Amino acid sequence: MTTAPPSWGVQYTLSLPSESAARAASAELSGMGHRLTAVRVHDHFCFVPSSFWYSRPSMDPELEGWWQVFSLAVYSGYERMVLEPFLRSERIRVAHVARAHGGFQQGYSEGHAATLEGVFVRDGLVHEQADADVALPSPPPKDPARPPAGPPWTCSEVGEPAAVVQAVVAVAERMYGGAEDVPDAVGWLLDEEFAFGKPYGSTGEFLGDLADAVADQGTCTDVTVEAVPFIIELVCDDSVAPGSRLVLLGDLLRLAASGPAAAVSLADRITALGGVWEESAAEYLTRRAIGSDLPMLLSRWEDESDAARFALAALTALCGTRDQHALSGLAALPAPAGSSRADVMSLVAALLSDEGLVSALNRLSSWLPSVAEKAASPNVDPRTLGQAILPDLVLEDVASGIAGADFESIPPPRRLRPVLRPRTTR
């Protein structure tokens, strides 16, 4: 006898500008089959004397006077992975409900339905439908088929960790020596404690530490801006293994796209609050610093591997440079028609030339549900979306051209997170 999988639950959180808007949205969610729906003023527990949060300052002062909806939906009959395409459509649907009432979807959490129902905070409960499940189509939807990948890139080795560390430290010594103005992100490489510390077990671990020192959790700061010339010098230094230089190019891609990525993730919130997106000074200055050194990177085009050229063309597009050499060089790279690589290259070409952007995004959305989900918001600008999604698309493709490493050194940026100083010792 086959045991049915446990019911899966998703708790959605919406932010709305007024109590009436919150109640209208909660009624709509209840009508969609959500089991529990509560409405509370933003920072509700700051006004409850028995709460830990009583009288504490708001974690999100921009939303003072707003209201929140907390809604639990239950999905039964299938394992979580089978549910993913339907849950994605549900997130799009719930985000639409929030926008329709002047607000935005603030987030969601998932888990076994019994657990989420047991911990659901019922303060402000306005709708309860005992044992209600959201109706699922039968069979559940499936993700679209992915096009075949492009031909494999020539593989580049990342090098042994000790050799890569030695090469990177040599570049740091050449650029900064014992000068007092060594960037914080580089200073630890010249620290005596680092020199005599425990050797790295893998090159990927070292590159991850380096990336984290440059941009902790992918967040651009003044430290990041100062470190950009050093990273670019590493990319141009042939003593650093080719695969490691390609990983560093990937780090630059993610840093250059940090502003657009934040703009896409916050688009509905910014619109609901009546604001206009402005990237942080550090994000802007980081991208400008990368762009100012692009000529040095592009001057090596003929000496780089095809995978590195692909990454360089994408970096040029992210920096807003209309470089015809990069555009023509991109067209010469191997990308058979109908392959996923061809679609990604179409996006790079569109960003480089300002032509065909919408059609390139539409092709990607047809087989990449994550792109379709981001594009579902009318508040997301197409060019910003293209820039935001480009690094992951390029790096997923060129990862096959790196032996012994991945592109996890700089993770996607985390918003509203305290910025930490880079560590100086291991």
Task: Trace the largest sheet across and list its strands.
Answer: 4-1-3-2-5
- Give the number of helices: 19
| % residues in beta strands | 5-15%
**Mean of all residue-level pLDDT scores:** 91
- Compute the gyration radius: what is it? 24 Å
What class do helices, strands and sheet pairing give?
Answer: alpha+beta
What is the terminal separation in angstroms?
54 Å
Q: What share of residues is helical?
A: 40-55%
Coarse shape: globular
What are the segments in which pLDDT stays under 50 over at least 5 consecutive residues? Answer: 405-426
Number of beta-strand segments: 7
H and E order: EHEEHEHEEHHHHHHHHHHHHHHHHE
Largest sheet: 5 strands, antiparallel
Short description:
With 426 residues, the chain is of the alpha+beta class.
Structure description:
With 426 residues, the chain is an alpha+beta fold. The protein is 49% helix and 10% strand. It has 19 helices and 7 strands. It has helices spanning 19-31, 80-100, 113-119, 161-176, 184-187, 192-195, 203-214, 222-236, 242-256, 258-265, 267-272, 281-292, 294-298, 306-318, 324-331, 340-353, 357-367, 369-375, 382-398; strands at residues 8-16, 36-41, 67-75, 104-112, 125-128, 156-157, 402-403. The strands form 2 sheets. The protein has a 5-stranded antiparallel sheet. Strands 6-7 form a two-stranded parallel sheet. Helix 14 (306-318) runs antiparallel to helix 19 (382-398), helix 16 (340-353) packs antiparallel against helix 17 and helix 16 (340-353) crosses helix 19 (382-398). The radius of gyration is 24 Å and the shape is globular. Residues 405-426 have low confidence and may be disordered.
